Amino acid sequence: RREPLALINLKKKNDETGEEELASRLDHCKAKATRHIFLIRHSQYNLDGRADKDRTLTPLGREQAELTGHRLASLGLKFDQIIHSSMTRATETTEIISKYLPGVKKISTDLLREGAPIEPDPPVSHWKPEAVQYYEDGARIEAAFRNFIHRADAKQEEDSYEIFVCHANVIRYIVCRALQFPPEGWLRMSLNNGSITHLVIRPNGRVALRALGDTGFMPPDKITRT
């Protein structure tokens, strides 16, 4: 979210209380809690599926999701919610992970669906979507970033722990934007299936990346990057 000072109408200043009232209004707009964002890439899926509904998780993909769910549960954190892409592979990954986190609510959204966020720099020869796809997907993925990746609301009293299950392109773009790096560099990162990326957003708006594409909890023979 924006700086507290940007949320206040500075013209509405009481002549009698002056700076004292301004400080009080600023405190009312300041975040107090830290947000922990866990970005999970979906597990391995059937690449031969022609439609999204056919691109279901493979047996190995289901194993990966089990391992990711077990890892998240082992952290001993009180997760607030799981927000996931509405695509089949992300939804199935979420269903398996959620078995290890009973009681945590699940929310589906189209904003986190896979896509082409922005033309990568440097360009790559093996992946060249139509230019119009960048305009359509890019606006949606940027909207996902603005909607989900921000400092805590001023009303939030305790630190929160949230899980987002989505896709490699979306996660890589979000990481670049959150760290204020050039977003065109998103394709320079590589993420394994079922991997965990951990962003921390402090009350002052500072962002730290604690983990990027972690799959250290998986046996080597279970790791893929499809």
TrEMBL record:
<keyword id="KW-1210">Necrosis</keyword>
<dbReference type="GO" id="GO:0012501">
    <property type="term" value="P:programmed cell death"/>
</dbReference>
<dbReference type="InterPro" id="IPR029033">
    <property type="entry name" value="His_PPase_superfam"/>
</dbReference>
<dbReference type="Pfam" id="PF00300">
    <property type="entry name" value="His_Phos_1"/>
</dbReference>
<dbReference type="GO" id="GO:0005741">
    <property type="term" value="C:mitochondrial outer membrane"/>
</dbReference>
<keyword id="KW-0378">Hydrolase</keyword>
<dbReference type="GO" id="GO:0004722">
    <property type="term" value="F:protein serine/threonine phosphatase activity"/>
</dbReference>
<keyword id="KW-0472">Membrane</keyword>
<dbReference type="GO" id="GO:0090141">
    <property type="term" value="P:positive regulation of mitochondrial fission"/>
</dbReference>
<dbReference type="InterPro" id="IPR013078">
    <property type="entry name" value="His_Pase_superF_clade-1"/>
</dbReference>
<dbReference type="InterPro" id="IPR051021">
    <property type="entry name" value="Mito_Ser/Thr_phosphatase"/>
</dbReference>
<comment type="similarity">
    <text>Belongs to the phosphoglycerate mutase family. BPG-dependent PGAM subfamily.</text>
</comment>
<keyword id="KW-0496">Mitochondrion</keyword>
<keyword id="KW-1000">Mitochondrion outer membrane</keyword>
<protein>
    <recommendedName>
        <fullName>Serine/threonine-protein phosphatase PGAM5, mitochondrial</fullName>
        <ecNumber>3.1.3.16</ecNumber>
    </recommendedName>
</protein>
